[in-house]
Structure formats: structure tokens, C-alpha cells
Amino acid sequence: MEIDLLRNYPKTNRNTQARSEEKTDAVRAIARQFGEQFFDGERQYGYGGFHYFPRFWQPVVPDIQQQYRLTEHSSVLDVGCAKGFFLHDLKQLIPGITAKGIDISDYAIAHAKEEIKADVICVCATRLPFADNTFDLVMSVNTVHNLERKECGQALQEIMRVSKGNAFITVDAYRNAEEEARMYEWNLTAKTIMHVDEWKAFFQKVGYTGDYFWFIP
Predict the structure, then answer these.
(1) What are the CA-CA distances from residue 173 to residues 77, 134, 170 (Å)?
(2) How wide is the angle at C-alpha 143 spanned by C-alphas 108 and 126, nearest 5°?
(3) The predicted structure's pLDDT at residue 11
(4) pTM of the predicted protein model
(5) What count of Cα atoms within 13 Å lies in the side-chain half-sphere of residue 53?
């Protein structure tokens, strides 16, 4: 189902044209290492400082909790967890819940919030080190599109494999020519970007049956 579970995540104004002007192949190459420069380096390489603020994820967790009926007995995996800010707030707001995370960035995992460091590991989304049907919910926000299309499909299959059926992802997408132009001005790391209808067809092709929504700058 198409559902915006991040509707309460604070929105920012994005100057896509200015970002496009400062991007080069060299800048993209550095950003796609997902290291210190991407998270905590200069703004042109990524976040320009990736820090924890409760105002980001705390308003989002209740919607996710309600949608998937999460309780202290539930288990959640965050694919592309970065420094674990979502996992931290999830555990704060649902005490006792099992919350795990994976990320390709050894830098992000090394600098994860202390409270959840024991729950996050550095692995690729195409090979999740968990048994089938492990998690009540698997989340992946703005992550799988950073893979080439074939690997993106593998990651989506892995998400479904380790979930008990519930999954939610967001991916870079567009609905018209104007949004497509803005997307390519803004994009720094994504390797798989498609029209929303192409994404839906792709989901069906690879067997992704979870929920989804779009990131459109």
C-alpha cells in the first residue's frame, strides 16, 4: 500500500538548483562512500553534520506503531539505520521492543548512539544476516535506491524474506517531468530512480509486497 508514514517528519526547503551546481562526479564518488564526509563533512558531500534531534523521529514513531500494531513484544529491523536515531526513538517510545539496524557505513555504525550500538551492525542490504520471518516490521527509509537496480531488487527481496509480512520503504521517485528534473538536480547518492509507476511495476517483478512511499524533493 502507498502510505506516507513520514508525514510528521519535519520538512525542509530544498534549493535543488544550487545543489545541482555544486555536484560533480568527484563529489558524488565521495558521497557514495557513506563515510565521514557524507555524514559529518561539508554540506556538498551529504548531510553537513548528521546529529540527533528528537523532533525528527519522535513525531513519526506513533504513526508507525499504530499502523503495524507494535508493542513491547514486537521486533523491528531498520535497513539503512545510519547512526540509529530512529531505533533510539523507537525504543524510547515503545520500551521493551526489539529493535535492530544494519547499514553499509562502518563510519555510521561506529558513531551510532551509545544506547543502541549493541543493536546495529555493518552489512549490505542485499545479504541480511537474519533468518526468514524474523521481524514483525522491516523499515528502510531512503536506502535501497542507493543500489544499482539489480541489487536494489535483491535488497527488497531480502527485506521481505526476513519480515513476517510487514515492511515499509521510501525511495527516490517522481510523478512528472518537473519532479524528475528536481530529483536529478537534488540526487547525490541514489543509483535507482524511477517514475512512481515504474517503481510499482518493479515491486511486483521482484516480489516486494510491503508498503511504500516516495521521496520527492
Answers:
(1) 23, 29, 9
(2) 90
(3) 85
(4) 0.95
(5) 7
| Strand ranges in the chain using DSSP code E only, listed in sequence order | 75-79, 98-103, 120-122, 137-141, 167-174, 194-195, 211-215
With beta carbons less than 8 A apart as the criterion, state whether 12 and 53 touch: no
Among the residues of 101-193, which ranges form H helices?
A: 106-110, 149-162, 177-186
Distance CA 12, CA 179 (A): 16
Write out pLDDT tens, residues 3-16: 999 999 998 776 66
Domain boundaries, the chain: 16-215
**What SS3 class is residue 106?**
helix
Go through 56-80 and write b for each residue having 16 or more CB atoms within 10 A of its CB, e for each that does not: bbbebbebbbeebebeeebbbbbbb
Matching CATH number, 16-215, of 1.10.260.40, 1.10.10.60, 3.40.50.150, 3.30.2290.10: 3.40.50.150
Could you give the CA distance from residue 187 to residue 82 in angstroms, rounded to a whole number?
18
User: Exposure pattern of 136-169 as b/e (b: 16+ CB <10 Å)?
Assistant: bbbbbbbbbbbbeeebbbbbbebbbebbeebbbb
CA distance 195 to 209: 18
Is the distance from CB of 98 to CB of 76 less than 8 angstroms?
A: yes
pLDDT of residue 22: 74
Question: Which amino acid appears at position 188 of this protein?
Answer: L
Spatial distance between the Cα atoms of 112 and 89, rounded to a whole number of angstroms: 13
